[in-house]
Fold each of these.
Amino acid sequence: MSLKSRKVCSVMKKSTIGIIFLFVVIVLVAVSLSKKQHVLKDRKISVAVTTFSLYDITKHIVGQSVKVVNILPFGVDPHDYEPTPKTMADIEKASLVLYSGAGLEPWTHGFSFKNKVIDISQFMELRELEEGEEHEHRHEVVDPHYWLSFSNMAKATQLITDELIKILPENKSLYIKNRDDYLRMLRELDTQFKNRLAKCERDTIIVNHNAFGYLAQKYNFHVESLSGLSPDAQPNAKNIIRLMDTIKEHNVSTVFFESFASDRAIKSIAKEAHTLADVLYPLGNITSKEASKGLTYENLMEENLHKLSKALSCR
């Protein structure tokens, strides 16, 4: 082979090796990028929420696209809850924290949130307590149970959707569709409550915990409670006598308690007054059993409507 031919072969061999090396590099880079993209795809952004109503809204909007951290364990009263160290760590990791506000979560005062946090109550229409209510409710001036107003729930739904779109704009169309479905459900609930509670023979319900002021104000009935806004407040003899008189005066057929609050006092009143006792859902939280059944805000509000309609003898 001539010297010229050997040089040509040598150049071709080097060129082939260079091409192979470049191909290997491209493949390695592609595999690396694929792994990174896969990790990013699998690593979900988390949103931490308090109260069952905020949890229900957020879960319906995000579907499977975001991990929703439920700060408040099912079956625990939101009024006096303090997060555990593990929960606090989950809150720190969350890209967004949504809390109910209006005095419902005292633990948030002085808590240092790492990322964005929103007090939902700041955007709601809050019911001011009526004269005399403040004396039983730790001197608060507003009722924190605003999620029992469908218009407030609609505002919260819009607000949460907007914040989620800021975090994950690529899911905008999904979130808007789910938002619209949720808003439609709230409008349908409002219509059902208006129709079912329009004509009733009775006008008063008795509960152990006055979480139902927003419903009463909107749909024109009265609420008398044993322990005020806090379900853990201790009933006294004066309140028990007052409720016994109310039962007699308004011909009350049913007294209500909560599924995870003490029902001893309210059941005792029901027995003494010869009335029924039943569960009504304030939806600050739900029990583990209710959660395991997959019950939603819609399901439980429909159940509330059925029980209210029956207790008020509505036509």
Amino acid sequence: MIAVPRTDRSVLGRWWWTVDRWTLIALSILIAFGALMAFAASPSVASRIRIDSLSLVKHHFALLPVAGVLLLGVSLLDVRNVRRLAVLGFVAGCLLLGLTLVAGTEIKGASRWISLGGFSLQPSEFVKPCFAVVAAWMFSLQHGPERIPGNLIAMVLFAPVLGLLLLQPDLGMAVVIAATFLAQFFLAGLPIFWVGLLGGLAVAGMVGAYFAFPHVQQRVDAFLDPASGDRYQIDRSLEAFANGGWFGRGPGEGTVKLVLPDAHSDFVFSVVGEEFGTVVALFIVAVFCFVILRGIARLMNEQNLFVLLAAAGLLVSFGLQAAINMASSLSLIPTKGMTLPFISYGGSSLLALSLTMGMLLGLTRKRPGRGGFA
């Protein structure tokens, strides 16, 4: 640990003694392992798409300092400034979400990316944490002294976000944001009748997506009946885990990255399983679980409703994204293109997750009082 005296009243000194250092350590492990996986999985993918074998690695390492500064910089903010940053990020993200529909880059049939100065940005990745904080603010206002109709405002804000995501289409991101929103709504005191109603609507929406989006139908059919659809990627993924066994084939010795198109991103967990084995894969799962449980533990005595709802939303979003990625790689759910937090390659994902965890660390810092509706 860094030696910082408790008498240090500088910004960094106060931050060091109020931030959750155990969560910082866990996140550092994930980021470091992600850097290792960039070396392990990206060169093969780069060679397959006929670019310099180290170009993706260089891109990832060029963004790591930016991600680190973003995470630490946001964690320095107090509760009010985290909220302000989220509002600005939400407004900008929604504008860019709309722009993707008219000027976005179409990849694999979806317009989710927009090119900004040579950098491909996925706005939905940034809307996800910012909306979680904004929704928490609205829910907390509903129970504040002025009785502002925060629940209604939150639902009004949620509708266009969901609509824009479905128009791209990006069903996976829509599911994560919707699940986070419903979890926050439940924690804010949603009556059980509305829990059942909204849960029913969510199920109806997923059934509707099955019939509305052909790619969703194909993936669900292939999951339910392996003989009915293309299972090339998931079959190779399962083979990778089988080949890796308990202790793996060794760094750089895996073969799945030579044939999987998304070995560096959506299926990076398969590369982990093959090269490092089940033991390391389970360790990564444990680190994700630690971050989530540690965050929950920090909220157990929290009296500020906004902080409680915002941090809970960020934790749900982070944990659900990790669970979807790993479950997809193991064929526990239909495949869904979603990055494994801090470990998959992806600039937008890396920066957005740094923003997410920076907000979480900022919100859960020790504060005198820890009460009110600020």
Amino acid sequence: MSRAYLDHASTAPLRPVALEAMLPFLTEHHGDPGRLHAEGRATRVAIEDAREQVAAFVGARPREVVFGSSGTEAINAAVFGALARGREQGRTHVVTTAVEHSAVLEAALRETADVTAVGVDSRGRFDAAEVIAAVRPDTVLVSVQLANHEVGTLQPAAEVSAIARERGALVHVDACAAVGHVPVSFADIGADLCSITAHKLGGPKGAGALLVRRGLRLAPLLLGGAQERARRGGLENAAAIVGFGAACAWLAEDDRLATEARDAAALVARADAVLSDPGIERFGEPAPQGRLPHLLCFGVEGVEAEPILLALDQHGVAVHSGSACSSELLEPSPVLAAMGVDADHSLRVSVGWNTTAADVDRFVDALPPILTRFRQLRA
């Protein structure tokens, strides 16, 4: 029986166009791109073509794209690099928010104990003015997200960038959840640094990038080579980089990003049928224009998420929850906790490039009887 995979916000299936582009670099082109022989030059050309494709898709210059293994690596590189720069100036204060990806806060706390995490409202949105108010003379980095990965709320990152940079702080924007689902322009955001990843938009796992504003020099996170213009040591993952570029180029053509966003929004609206249950409450921004188009997060009153997840899985439906039991963490989602909602009763449904109406209908049909059964058992 085919399954309904509705967890694209965690990771999306590989797009055929990306796989096709990758295959020659898994089977034929094996040369080190740092070498002058023909094999090396072929790989180098492919990587630089991919750099141009990714840069064009996210509104950056090709030389601003530093390839790495993931969005998490890009976040770490931004935080560690900014703090290394700050220590030379006697500045080690970091401003971030309570709903950032764990990589931001954990990286900052490993390097400095001086971190201010600004709170959010019940929709998961931070106030740009509050973030700016937390900036001090010794603030070296302000790190905020472009869109929330749990509830999909779009954030006022560009408002933060302009003023924080005027006050002398570096600004990092985490766009990993947003790229491939809404338009993203590094130039328009106005940040110094921006982290992106391939696997959430249908590119391969093992590829991400840190966008670094032209003229900014940071100490690299990984040492041991002059790859990526001495900004990230280690032999490049050519196949993954090429696949990343191919996925970005495909989305950039013929307004496909907008088309997929409209399709995703229609599928999520179809999934909204479950919200008619009086015991279900949407989490995050209710207005479609204020959230990512492909994601629905909600809470189920009176029933914990883990048994619902397992029951849906038995019905061939894969979704996610912010509860502690459903992840590698021992604690529930800090995002939902910061919003003041119960993560242990949360479910997240996210669609993607290969999701069908039948997939969503299977979820919509399966959930009500599952909830009825568990509520009866509870009663």
Amino acid sequence: MKPIKDRLRETIGLDAASVGSTMIQRAVRQRMRSLGFKQLVDYWRFLEHSRAEWQELVESVVVTETWFFRDPEPIAAFVRLVREEWLPAHATAQLRLLSVPCSSGEEPFSLVMALLDAGVPAERFQIEAVDISARALARAGRGVYGKNSFRGKDFSFRDRYFQPSEEGFMLDPAVRNCVQFCQGNFLSEDFQTREPSYDFIFCRNLLIYFDPLMRRKALAKIERLLAPTGVLFVGPVEQPLAIEHGFETAKIPMAFACRRAGHGARRQRVAWMSKRSGAAPKHQLEGHFQPQHQPQASGRRLMPSPDKPSSSLRPDLETARRLADTGHLKEAAEICEAHLRERRVSAQAYYLLGLVRDASGEPGAIDCYRKALYLEPNHYESLLQMAFLLQKNGEAARARALKSRAQRIGMKM
């Protein structure tokens, strides 16, 4: 089995420990049964000379689980950056965005719908979406999705952009035409993109499957593809990995966004709660996108004023989340702590408090994640954050175990 694992790592960057050796073994055994091989050595010989079988094995081990608006925070951040930074600086240019890996298209199509809902014309942007899985791309090309692609509580976007069909829900061609799909191995030497650089790159939950060497290779390629003023969006555990490579945080809590080194410090942080009447975005983050009411003529704030004493704010996690999104980490932490004092047990409160402490550089983040997992052992985000901190502290074995748990949970979500 080792030669197969080594080849998977060398070609697609897959670290066997990230998905679990048993998963790879199970995929290999299934392929052997389908082809009638009884000995592993015979299958390996066949695999060495069959590009088609190699692709079949890759299809069996890559993780393609996703759904629409899976992570609302980065999408909300992306839309705000486009409206408040990119569009004012580019009067006529077309925005270039790369989504890799794109799986069956839910992420890039979510980005299209979010831009359209924000009033950005379709002719102002073009999204290129890349994945190694031919099967996933075939589903994306058809644009027909079943119930697993729609999760959460708010399906208003489905009413606007999908039509019911016998097989599920068919995506509006106007949305589909905004994305160009391409099959490719991001780590291969001959990997080519349509554009030389991109204003935004979404590369979420890919780096966690790579070993350190392949991760550096991937981040170097991303750095070459990202425009000087561009923004990279990665997964929660991956942002520190990008920073270690030389990127800088974009200072947008909960979005896990980065800029190229030297650029972030020179730019003014985006104001996430607009003070200008009528300037509020069409959507806001509340676990999913929902319409946001415009400010009244009186100038009343949509959220409690961050400069109010924290004691005057009710201990509500949504308030804490929004304060964290504005960069008011101290106030957000105080609300989380008050929430815990009042309600005693809340995995989500401990998770949010851990994120805030981590973002502000204060100690205690790992204890918060540990408490969240004590209350809710399958808390996906806490597992990922805990795994990263353990990895950073040199506890690689425990980190791998937690990552494996998180991946199994993520596949069931």
